[in-house]
Amino acid sequence: MAKFKKAAEPVKVRLKKNDLVEVTTGKEQGKTGKVLKVFREKNQVLIEKVNMIKRHTRPSPTTGKGGIVEKEAPMFVCKVKLICPKCATGTRFRMTQTGEGKKVRVCLKCKELIDG
Ligand SMILES: [Zn+2]
């Protein structure tokens, strides 16, 4: 029996913490930053200094401080591109396996390994 391909397969998050990414769409387009956190189950990433939102906080009883703090909000992975260290630009990549069976990412443009 042939296996049918599932129509709605969840997007695989292939980004990792500390990856350098570029935003490709939306109001943050063109911004680059480091991935701080990956939310695999939500297909979202948190990028340093990108998609900042203002949060109102109550004064804390310990520090006595409150007010508005700016913090990063998660973005969907489909809105960001991994930056190839060699091309120095947002790029598309594919997964490949090394001889040792290690999964690595390869830039489709320059064919260089993105993972060291
Ligand atoms: Zn490249």
Structure write-up:
- The structure is a single chain.
- The chain has 116 residues and is an all-beta fold.
- It is built from no helices and ten strands.
- The strands form three sheets. A six-stranded antiparallel sheet has the order 6-3-2-1-7-8, with no helix packed on it. The protein has a two-stranded antiparallel sheet with strand order 4-5. A two-stranded antiparallel sheet has the order 9-10.
- The chain is elongated, with a radius of gyration of 18 Å.
- It binds zinc ion.
Which helices and strands appear, and what pairs or packs with what?
Blueprint lengths: L19 E4 L8 E8 L4 E4 L4 E6 L9 E6 L2 E2 L3 E5 L4 E3 L1 E5 L5 E5 L9
Antiparallel strand pairs: 1-2, 1-7, 2-3, 3-6, 4-5, 7-8, 9-10
The helix/strand series, from N terminus to C terminus, equals EEEEEEEEEE
Query: Structural class of the helix and strand makeup?
Result: mainly beta
**Radius of gyration, in angstroms, nearest whole number:** 18 Å
User: Remind me, CATH topology of the domain at 20-58 and 67-91?
Assistant: SH3 type barrels
CATH class of the domain at 20-58 and 67-91: Mainly Beta
CATH architecture heading of the domain at 20-58 and 67-91: Roll
Distinct small molecules bound, one entry per kind: zinc ion
- Range of strand content: 35-45%
Name the helicity range.
under 10%
Quaternary structure type? single chain
Count of alpha/pi helices: 0
- Give the N-to-C terminal Cα separation: 41 Å
Uncertain parts = none
**On the 0-100 scale, what is the average pLDDT?**
88
Counted beta strands:
10
Shape descriptor: elongated
Please list the strands of the largest sheet in the order they lie side by side.
6-3-2-1-7-8
Largest sheet: 6 strands, antiparallel
